[in-house]
Amino acid sequence: METIDIIQPKNLVYKKPDLMNDNDMHYCPGCSHGVVHKLVAEVIEEMGLADKAVGISPVGCAVFIYNYIDIDWQEAAHGRAPALATAIKRLWPDRLVFTYQGDGDLACIGTAETIHALNRGENITIIFINNAIYGMTGGQMAPTTLLGMPTATCPTGRQADIHGYPLKITEIAAHLQGTAYVTRQSVHTVAAIRKAKKAIRKAFENSMENKGSNLVEIVSTCSSGWKMTPAESNKWMEENMFPFYPLGDMKDSSKDNK
Hints:
It comes from Bacteroides coprosuis DSM 18011. By secondary structure, the chain is α/β, with parallel strands linked by helices.
């Protein structure tokens, strides 16, 4: 049989960001974290801020971002990343300071720190990975778990009369006076990945220009916690998560001022 070499044009070959090290990714197949890590690294590189970037990693699956992107990192207690980010940015106002948090960390134990940092207009960016479940600790119900969605702690599905309603942090943030840019994106397709990257860049630029606080939510999958294959998770997210957590910008003060 004849062998044909397939040569890919150079401009289509993926180049790993220089800021990402060679550590093997430990995330489950289909997890959104790895894709978002790549976007964060690319944006920091392209902005030329590798030496001025300080990331805050909390507790949960999101904590491991420090193991893959070679910038300065601080680890915060569970939910306290926005408070730590506030201190760092106020001490070093010339730095790019951002947090990288999951929904259990940000929207549950860290609700107070998140809301008040955003409302104060701290010049930081909060990157919020929302997969509607506690991924690291066994798939328990999170504040963002959808009604009817089964988890380890609500195996028959979340019920409003017992567990309350899912918390829409991004919609709340959009109504706060201190926020400059609030958006909800995803990374389930190439087009979505491009939009998410632009959103992260805009948030980082706002932070460096002292325009106020920024929140970038990424609606994500958790194949292990959802007990689905990666393909099934993507489909389930599109059919169930997106209607409740619609994608797009919720607030953009740069447009509001025009």
